[in-house]
Amino acid sequence: MISKFSSGHPVRDAFEEEDNMKKITLLLMSAVLAFSLIGCGTPDDNKSEESVNNSQEDSSAEDSSSEEEESSVSEDGSEESSEGSEDASGDENAEAGSVMTYAEYDAAAVDTQVTIEAYVQAKQAWWEDKATVYAQDEDGAYFLYDMACTQEDYEKLTVGTKIRVTGYKAEWSGEVEIIDATFEIIDGNYVATAEDVTALLGSDDLIKKQNMFVSFKGMTVEAKKDADGNEVAFLYKWDGSGQDGDDLYFDVSVNGQTYTFTVESYLCDNTTEVYSAVKNLKVGDKIDMEGFLYWYEGVNPHITKVTAAQ
What we know:
6 helices
């Protein structure tokens, strides 16, 4: 037999081979003795083995529990219970497009994205899948300008219909409005009663009623000048350059102050009662009115009803 440690020297190789044979014999005898001891193991030895197995099972259970705990940890490392997860989800839903109260909307900065719920009070017009709507709730009012709207949905926007609107708060020449908006119809109905704001004319508090459905009582029709310098009760367009079917502008006064009111032709065209009523006004007439408190470089109500003062 040639040892794997063969050096190539015959004498040394023979000596090492004999020595190796002795070592192998001793190793075989030791192995036989070890197997005999295992076969005759004591109860304590078996118990020790069982303890080891139990310890391994406990360790496996702990690892499994640890994995379950890890699965409840969010990606950012914070622990979450299932209940906490639901709460967090609710908070996210509340923050994303949450519905504002009128006070929150009023306090929001211009260009802020806003979501409100309100009730349609009037429609100004529809064209190219856009609609302009006057809306109101129990606390305030909104002017929804060029809101995305199909013609089919426009027909559904009857007075009192509740809608949820998301868009951007904007301001144009003093008029606060919502632009670039979308909406959905939701359950609910409310029709506002015109609030008498005559006493607020000329005060800083009037603007707080902006866009609301309001009334004015005991106003006097004042003269305007047409293109020829004649005194008239109204003008077609603000400068008199228009014709029948255009907006009507007329002046009224109370307590020595004169204000310009408008019949917005998109809202109330020349087939409506209010359009005819204004065309028939005479300077000095005493009238009551209803309409929406629109703003343009100051108060400029869009009038929807005119009657003789009561």
